[in-house]
Design the sequence.
């Protein structure tokens, strides 16, 4: 025993010495986790229970996916045209890193001013620590003395998924990865041993997807209620579908967009383009097949609530879609469109049994940050997590027309105010509300907090059914909050999507519904399938795993999958005119994704992969006038704020986050992302 102790002391001393000698040997190699991985290796892999604990410990290192705004691990909604925060601080005082990113403050030396206990945009090293842990498991998979075949397959499946998910995060936020494979990188080698170049974008994509494919073979089709948050076979397949759609899109699939962004970006070690400059329609076919595979599992469906006497009647006289008045899923009748959408996000629907959520997680962040960030200061919120006028304008009218189309008969108007109160699906709409907000589709009311909207806060018996007023002099307006507080909606709109009617921060009995965040849900798969099919011109034979698919452009399949999402929202499906060309269909898909996935961390990636990032960011952020003290002066479209922190930078480099400069210095063969 004495000898064993001496050996362990010598081992620790040697390890400490080696750690300090090799601290320059790459954050991505997880040197700072050396003791955790190596010193306790015997106990970690001595039995199945310990190995699984070690595996789930690796999974627990991932950021909370809902953590997209304050102390965000990813640029998120505030780095897009769908959201912003009125705070005017920047740099080390700012904790909204999406705002730092979009205003050009993020660099290889600065990723946000978060503390050591919070995230920032430098998660590169974290993901490689996770990868190393996974490789350690795979290398020692047969070591537990009580391991049986079922244990082995389960652990391998989850471990491969966790590793693939780490590469997924690297790929979408940092671009091409350094592929380590199954190697557990040694800790006592010369510097030259650690230097290796990045893979190309295609190589990283193919490797990541292949690992999800391998993982899916051993993962369960269903996850029990108690295990909600763990991924399933469907989660692996769904993430492949998401990645393959990105891969097929203009930014990464040859053509003028890929050339404009990456035509001059080549790997220094062999002069190979990091992003392919050759267009391949087959990539769209692979994306379509990957989405169809998820659909064909038969495990998932859109969440719906059956209509009742509170459900608003469908608008009359809709002629654009002959199926509109049929029962869902063949039309929009028979369901409550507001609750069918809203309940997914507010906590009303039980996430663990919601068949729309392919993969999600329980989270406090939606309460402690997103919900509070939107709720009016008078109710204990911050009132500053803003949505833009562009988003408001993107919502259709309840009859499916755009606001421009509905202006012809004054169904949409930017003059005047409603004269009668309404209550539909339990949602109260005051009289005197600006006509811009009348007659809109149900997702608008589920998602947007606007001037004179009601915040019900029904769990509080002392402060409830509160009408938030954002006029300059009112309690929740710019002049009503304290002089030093930025707690007002600078655009006049806040994200209300995650607020349940019962949610309250103040008052007697105030409480919040528990909430879950959808990492990926079935609506995305449906729209991805429609988009991928729409970009095909020929027929393709595709193999995914052991399944073969023949994929070609199928207008009926495009219409049916797209229309499901529209019908659930209480809207008519695509009209004959909208179905007349792939260009018009694509525009409808782009609008639909903007609205359906508002503040779900999709917009940042969508506008980039479509090649419209610069176009969308050059449009100034607009909202209502926060200096307006009357209805006449408040309801004016203005560009809010004069702070430099609200001046957005349009730059091709802002496709990805930079690789930390410290990593670049340690790895001479690694190329930085373009523009940094």
Sequence:
């Amino acid at each position: 025993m004495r000898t064993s102790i001496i050996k362990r002391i010598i081992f620790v001393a040697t390890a400490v010495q080696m750690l300090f000698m090799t601290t320059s040997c790459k954050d991505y190699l997880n040197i700072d986790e050396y003791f955790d991985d190596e010193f306790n290796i015997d106990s970690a892999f001595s039995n199945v229970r310990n190995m699984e604990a070690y595996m789930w410990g690796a999974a627990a290192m991932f950021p909370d996916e809902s953590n997209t705004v304050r102390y965000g691990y990813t640029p998120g909604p505030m780095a897009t045209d769908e959201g912003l925060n009125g705070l005017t601080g920047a740099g080390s005082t700012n904790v909204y890193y999406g705002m730092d990113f979009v205003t050009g403050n993020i660099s290889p030396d600065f990723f946000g001013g978060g503390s050591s206990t919070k995230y920032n945009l430098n998660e590169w090293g974290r993901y490689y620590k996770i990868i190393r842990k996974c490789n350690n498991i795979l290398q020692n998979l047969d070591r537990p003395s009580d391991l049986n075949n079922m244990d082995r397959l389960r652990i391998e499946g989850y471990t491969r998924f966790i590793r693939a998910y780490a590469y997924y995060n690297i790929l979408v936020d940092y671009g091409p990865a350094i592929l380590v494979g199954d190697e557990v990188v040694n800790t006592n080698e010369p510097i030259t041993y650690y230097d290796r170049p990045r893979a190309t974008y295609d190589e990283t994509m193919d490797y990541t997807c292949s690992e999800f494919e391998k993982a899916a073979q051993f993962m369960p089709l269903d996850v029990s209620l108690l295990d909600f948050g763990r991924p399933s076979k469907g989660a692996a397949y769904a993430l492949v579908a998401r990645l393959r759609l990105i891969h097929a899109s203009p930014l990464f699939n040859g053509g003028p967009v890929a050339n404009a962004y990456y035509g001059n970006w080549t790997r220094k070690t062999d002069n190979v383009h990091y992003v392919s400059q050759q267009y391949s329609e087959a990539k769209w076919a692979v994306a379509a097949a990957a989405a169809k595979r998820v659909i064909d599992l038969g495990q998932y469906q859109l969440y719906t609530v059956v209509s009742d006497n509170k459900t608003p009647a469908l608008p009359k006289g809709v002629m654009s879609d002959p199926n509109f008045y049929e029962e869902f899923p063949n039309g929009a009748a028979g369901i409550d469109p507001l609750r069918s959408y809203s309940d997914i996000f507010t906590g009303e629907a039980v996430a663990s049994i919601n068949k729309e959520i392919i993969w999600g997680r329980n989270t406090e962040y939606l309460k402690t940050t997103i919900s509070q960030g939107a709720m009016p200061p008078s109710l204990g919120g911050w009132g500053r997590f803003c949505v833009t006028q562009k988003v408001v304008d993107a919502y259709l009218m309840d009859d499916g027309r755009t606001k421009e189309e509905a202006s012809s008969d004054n169904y949409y108007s930017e003059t005047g105010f409603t004269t009668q109160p309404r209550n539909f699906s339990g949602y109260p709409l005051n009289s005197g509300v600006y006509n811009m907000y009348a007659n809109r589709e149900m997702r608008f009311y589920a998602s947007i907090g606007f001037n004179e909207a009601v915040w019900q806060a029904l769990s509080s018996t002392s402060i409830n059914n509160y009408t938030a007023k954002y006029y300059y002099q009112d309690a929740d307006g710019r002049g009503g909050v304290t002089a030093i507080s930025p707690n007002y909606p600078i655009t006049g709109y806040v994200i209300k999507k995650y607020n349940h009617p019962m949610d309250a921060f103040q008052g007697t009995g105030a409480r919040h519904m528990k909430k879950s965040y959808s990492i990926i849900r079935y609506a995305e798969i449906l729209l991805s399938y429609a988009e991928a099919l729409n970009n095909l011109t020929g027929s393709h034979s595709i193999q995914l795993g052991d399944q073969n698919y023949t994929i070609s452009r199928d207008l009926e399949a495009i219409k049916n999958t797209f229309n499901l999402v529209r019908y659930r929202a209480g809207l008519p499906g695509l009209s004959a005119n909208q179905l007349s060309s792939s260009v018009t269909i694509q525009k409808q898909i782009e609008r639909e994704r903007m609205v359906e996935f508002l503040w779900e961390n999709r917009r940042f990636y969508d506008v980039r992969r479509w090649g419209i990032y610069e176009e969308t960011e050059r449009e100034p952020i607009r909202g209502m006038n926060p200096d307006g003290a009357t209805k006449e002066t408040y309801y004016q479209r203005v560009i809010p704020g004069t702070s430099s922190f609200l001046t957005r930078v349009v730059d091709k480099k802002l496709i990805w986050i930079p690789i930390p400069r410290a990593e670049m210095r340690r790895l001479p063969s690694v190329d930085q992302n373009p523009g940094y």
Notes: The two ends are 55 Å apart (CA to CA). The chain has 24 helices and twelve strands. The longest strand covers residues 357-363. Residues 1-35 have pLDDT under 50 and may be disordered.
